[in-house]
Design brief:
By secondary structure, the protein is α+β, with helices and mostly antiparallel strands. The protein is built from 5 helices and 10 strands; from the N terminus they run ααββαβββααβββββ. It comes from Leptolyngbya subtilissima DQ-A4.
């Protein structure tokens, strides 16, 4: 079985390997998620691999257990903006079935359009949820059938698994504390 370190050194894992790695990690306390986190994909050949980075994803921000910003992107001026994930609702059922443009040009257009999708409102919350046999911190989207479940890699790093209702395979990502 690959470890998290081995998979990141190689640059990818299969979904089965990623699930084994995820299952081997310790749970995360909800309180340990509070703060700002920088995100990146954990490649498993999922259609979302690299997509968030192409759109200048910064990560996630957990202000409190009730006030969570699940999609934080870098702005052109170097700041960050929280995006309301409700804009993704028409795509949710197709997210793993349609090709996602990942070009620099499309990412720059999205970045220039961030003001259209930005919000100061919380769009998710944190709860302890039992998933794959362990109770761990889970981010629950307010308006989408998505849960992001977290497991501890170390004191500054968590492995996340996006569980979208109806999606064939989970999407994996890494968060590192800002």
């Amino acid at each position: 079985m690959k470890t998290f370190s081995e998979a990141t050194a190689i640059g990818k894992a299969t979904t089965a390997e990623a699930l084994d790695i995820f299952d081997s990690l310790e749970p995360v306390a909800v309180s340990d998620m509070i703060g700002s986190w920088r995100g990146s994909s954990f490649p498993t050949d999922h259609p979302l691999d690299g997509a968030l980075e192409a759109y200048h994803w910064h990560g996630k921000r957990f202000e409190t257990t009730e006030h969570v910003h699940p999609l934080v992107f870098k702005t052109a001026d170097g700041d960050t903006a929280s995006v309301n994930p409700t804009w993704m609702l028409p795509l949710v059922g197709w997210i793993d079935r349609l090709p996602i443009p990942k070009s620099e040009a499309v990412g720059n257009i999205f970045q220039a359009s961030l003001f259209l999708f930005s919000t100061n409102q919380s769009c998710a919350r944190l709860r302890p949820v039992t998933y794959r046999g362990k109770e761990t911190a889970t981010m629950i989207y307010d308006s989408l059938p998505i849960n992001d479940i977290f497991r501890k890699v170390d004191d500054r790093t968590v492995l996340g698994l996006m569980d979208l209702k109806g999606m064939e395979c989970p999407f994996f990502f890494v968060l590192q504390r800002d």
